[in-house]
Design brief:
GO molecular function: NADPH binding; oxidoreductase activity, acting on NAD(P)H
CATH superfamily of the largest domain: Medium-chain alcohol dehydrogenases, catalytic domain
Distance between the termini: 12 Å
Oligomer: single chain
Protein name: NAD(P)H quinone oxidoreductase
Order of helices and strands: EEEHEEEEHEHEHEHEHEHEHEHE
Radius of gyration: 20 Å
Keywords: NADP, Oxidoreductase
Number of helices: 9
Shape: globular
CATH class of the largest domain: Alpha Beta
Number of strands: 15
Helix content: 25-40%
């Protein structure tokens, strides 16, 4: 089979398409032909060595949408499935054309949802779902602030929160991106370069929940909270450090919850995929490229330009 791998750490050009042995499914696993995956920031960190991997050469790819190749374990050959835990499969991650995935990791893809859409939703929707509901305990009628609305997680969280009856504020860095986020359903879009997000939301009475994807903005998240608010910390797009006023944190009794390696269950992921099938959730896709252009895709994500997910397609 074919797989895009890196055998040394470095720039995007260390990614190479190689011929590698097909994986053989073990007990509790099933063989998939991968049709689509995505590029995530973790892929970049693994490739450049800032998050070293256990062994080289290494096949990245957190998600894999594809086709079951053989009957077994309640699945039929030809069924369309998604795993957001592809790094736990034999054969590598989603940059491989075949993987042997644990059956407990698989979510079925509805017929009307494309592989491209499923992969783009993938881990972003899974993380959004887990942060909003599993940890954030979001209820209908509550107000939520979602940082980095144009990111994969952010754009998914906006739409999923709206489907649950929440009022949604989000952040962006440009007017053009703000218009797109309003189309996704955001009730309020704040330009974090021009506005103080925390103060603006305090004028409206604050929010009950913050989905914090940036980390360096934690103080603004605390300011944005109403008393007894919750902050779910699931990303550090702005860096790993932040200075906060512990007095306001304490007096408002705000709970800050570390998200860890947060994912929804495959059953919850199927619910998110069903929202796509019923056109209640549209995964934001920046572009789709053939897997042979993985290096170009990494360079594009590093540029900071994409709005939405970069999808890689296997032929």
């Amino acid at each position: 089979m074919k797989a895009v791998q890196f055998a040394s750490y470095g720039a995007p050009n260390v990614l190479q398409l190689r011929d590698v042995p097909d994986p053989i499914a073990l007990a509790g696993q099933i063989l998939l032909e991968v049709k689509a995956t995505t590029v995530n920031h973790l892929d970049l960190f693994q490739r450049d060595g800032s998050r070293p991997v256990a062994q080289l050469p290494f096949t990245p790819g957190l998600e894999a949408a594809g086709i079951i190749l053989a009957n077994g374990h309640g699945f039929q050959a030809g069924e369309r499935v998604l795993t957001t835990r592809a790094l736990g499969a034999l054969g590598g991650g989603g940059y491989a054309s075949k993987i042997a995935a644990p059956i407990s990791h698989l979510a079925r893809i509805p017929d009307s949802v494309s592989f491209e859409q499923a992969a783009a939703a993938g881990l972003a929707a899974s993380t959004a779902w887990g942060s909003l509901f599993t940890l954030g305990k979001l209820q209908a009628g509550e107000r939520v602030l979602i940082w980095a609305g144009s990111s994969g997680v952010g754009s998914a969280a906006i739409q999923i929160a709206k489907q649950r009856g929440a009022w949604v504020a989000t952040t962006t860095s440009s007017h053009e991106r703000g218009e797109e986020l309003r189309k996704l359903g955001a009730d309020l879009v704040l330009n974090h370069r021009q506005q103080d997000v925390g103060q603006e939301l305090q004028k409206l009475g604050g929010v009950q929940l913050v989905i914090e994807l940036v980390s360096s903005t934690l103080q603004q998240s605390l300011e944005a909270c109403a008393p007894n608010g919750r902050v779910v910390l699931i990303g550090n797009l702005g860096g790993k450090e932040s200075t906060v006023d512990t007095q306001s944190w304490r007096l408002k009794r705000i709970s800050v919850i570390g998200g860890g390696q947060l994912q929804a269950s495959p059953q919850e992921e199927e619910q998110a995929l069903q929202l796509i099938a019923t056109k209640k959730f549209v995964p934001l896709i920046a572009c789709a490229l053939p897997i042979e252009q993985a290096a170009e895709a990494h360079a594009l994500l590093e540029s900071g330009e994409p709005q939405g997910k970069i999808v890689l397609l296997h032929s």
